[in-house]
Design a protein that fits this description.
Layout: E1 5-7, E2 12-17, E3 20-25, E4 30-33, H1 36-47, H2 53-60, H3 66-78, E5 82-84, E6 106-112, H4 138-151, E7 157-164, H5 171-187, E8 191-198, H6 205-213, E9 217-221, H7 226-232, H8 242-255, E10 262-267, H9 274-285, E11 289-294, H10 307-329, H11 337-348, E12 362-365, E13 371-372, E14 386-387, E15 391-392, H12 394-405, H13 418-421, H14 426-433, H15 444-464, H16 467-472, H17 474-479
Parallel strand pairs: 6-7, 6-12, 7-8, 8-9, 9-10, 10-11
Antiparallel strand pairs: 1-5, 2-3, 3-4, 12-13, 14-15
Helix pairs in contact: 2-3, 4-5, 10-15, 11-15
The protein binds iron/sulfur cluster (SF4) (2 copies).
One iron/sulfur cluster is lined by residues 355-356, 358, 373-374, 376, 425-427.
Length: 480
């Protein structure tokens, strides 16, 4: 009863936002507003030499009722934010995973290794010129869909994603897969959703009409205004592609009714001007969403953002985040996907043991039917996780996932965003260290600061316009 207490620092992250204090509960990624009594209990424990229940009630008794102190302390203990000194309080148990069956919902089909562009920074290891592109055939695509259902028959909703190279260069396969999947999933009483990322250069009005009819989610790879886009996104003949892409994007945006269209921006060295890029894509071209992917560990290191540029990118993302906040307070959205995803994760209390769904909820199929962690690994030297005829190789998959899940010997074990970041993207680790199981340690401080900024934005919206979450997060989630 009178044992010495301690604050379990490894579970507690406190964030000040304006005149309020919040507790970010690291194990569950939940956020609580910290009241005065809780704040006083925590600081008393930290200040006292040998804090006990008794010494705390004595120290705080002049300002709070004893019952309130005991009850608040009990709550802190139940959250493992305060514990008995000398116990193994700091350790978050690593529970090994043994996947008997993967809860797959998504299959990414790499339907052609060929691409008609020759973007300078492209990471794809199986990329070919259009003339030598290796196309996936219908049989392999069909086996991929069958594999998805046989590996994971109990889901209600599935996703099929078309990827390349340039997926539009194998449009006949896309049509075949959509027709096959629509019939198959409907016959089983399941829902299926399709999406595709394209460079848009081959897009025609006929494609748009077809995709609109089949409710296909589209993302366009475009790097901002002409001066930025044409630096890297060039044709195989070395010409900038902005004019074509912008024209096609306008055509698409003017005709597409079924779903919002997103722009996907790759940030490489020399390009950190987030606001100009967002303004062009959102306001001038009219994309509904703009997402930024900073390149920090590409295969071609010349294109990686330098450390000071990466810091600039995060500073500029925060500036755009302030615009996102100002719009949210007026119940509007500016379509800044990175910010939206972060506050969605905070709102939903997302707790990630692994950084993304790769290998668990999603696999990517290469043109020959080999299974890979995600679309970025097709053609890499990493071992395949099985193939579409034999299914997922669970022992290989389990070994890999457990290596990443075990944070015992890594800085991640004491990181305050360990259950949001979960060690970062496997492909970045692979490109940087040659080992996808190793966490990406090269911009942890920036990531932690970005999450604190997200907490600032989240709490401001929650205080001043909580209905924003009902309007912009709940419906999106229901759709997903
Ligand atoms: S990779 Fe870095 S930021 Fe991510 S959980 Fe590990 S220590 Fe934290
Ligand atoms: S491993 Fe990286 S690139 Fe692949 S799905 Fe996960 S986050 Fe995305």
């Amino acid at each position: 009863m009178n044992s010495t207490l301690e604050v379990i620092e490894n579970n507690l992250h406190q964030v000040e936002v304006k005149d309020k204090s919040f507790i970010f509960h690291i194990p569950t990624t939940s956020l609580f507003e910290r009241d005065e009594l809780t704040g006083d209990i925590l600081s008393s424990i930290q200040e006292q030499d040998k804090p006990t229940n008794l010494s705390l009630t004595k120290a705080l008794g002049a300002r709070y009722a004893e019952g309130d102190i005991i009850s608040a302390l009990g709550e802190l203990k139940s959250l493992s934010l305060v514990g008995e000194k000398g116990l193994d309080n700091d350790v978050e148990e690593f529970a090994p995973l043994t996947l008997e069956s993967a809860p797959l919902t998504t299959v990414v089909l790499n339907i052609n290794t060929g691409c008609n562009l020759s973007c300078t920074y492209c990471y794809k290891e199986d990329l070919d010129l259009p003339s030598s592109g290796k196309k996936m055939n219908f049989e392999t695509a069909k086996q991929s869909i069958d594999m998805l259902l046989s590996e994971s028959p109990d889901q209600t909703r599935y996703n099929v994603v078309f990827f390349g190279g340039e997926p539009l260069s194998n449009f006949s396969l896309i049509k075949g897969v959509i027709a096959y999947s629509e019939d198959l999933f409907a016959s089983k009483g399941k829902l299926v959703d399709f999406s595709m990322t394209t460079n848009a250069t081959l897009l025609t009005e006929n494609h748009v009409e077809y995709f609109d009819k089949h409710n296909v989610g589209l993302s366009i790879s475009i790097d901002g205004p002409k001066a930025y886009h044409d630096r890297n996104r060039i044709s195989v003949n070395g010409k900038g592609t902005y004019d074509t892409v912008a024209k096609k994007a306008k055509m698409l945006l003017s005709r597409y009714r079924s779903r919002p269209i997103g722009a996907r921006v790759t940030l490489t060295t020399g390009i950190t001007d987030i606001n100009t890029i967002w303004d062009h894509l959102f306001n001038t071209l009219g994309f509904s969403e703009v997402g930024f992917a900073p390149v920090t560990s590409g295969d071609i290191s010349d294109y990686n953002l330098k450390p000071e540029e990466l810091a600039d990118v995060f500073t500029n993302m925060k500036k755009l985040g302030e615009k996102y906040l100002a719009a949210a307070l007026e119940n509007k959205t500016i379509g800044f996907s990175n910010m939206h995803q972060l506050i969605t994760d905070i709102h939903e209390g997302t707790k990630k043991a692994l950084p993304c769904g790769a290998g668990v909820g999603m696999v990517a199929v290469d043109h020959e039917g080999g299974l890979n962690l995600c679309h970025r690994f097709t053609g890499s030297d990493q071992p395949l996780l099985g193939d579409v005829t034999t299914g997922l190789n669970k022992p290989i998959l389990n070994e890999f996932l457990n290596k990443r899940l075990d944070k015992n010997d890594q800085s991640c074990a004491t990181c305050n965003i360990r259950n949001l970041c979960a060690g970062g993207c496997y492909h970045e680790s692979y490109a940087r260290y040659g080992d996808p199981a190793k966490p990406t340690f090269h911009y942890c401080d920036l990531m932690r600061d970005w999450v604190d900024f997200g907490i600032h934005v989240y709490t401001q919206i929650m205080e001043h316009n909580p209905s924003f979450y009902d309007t912009y997060i709940a419906p999106r989630r229901a759709q997903a």
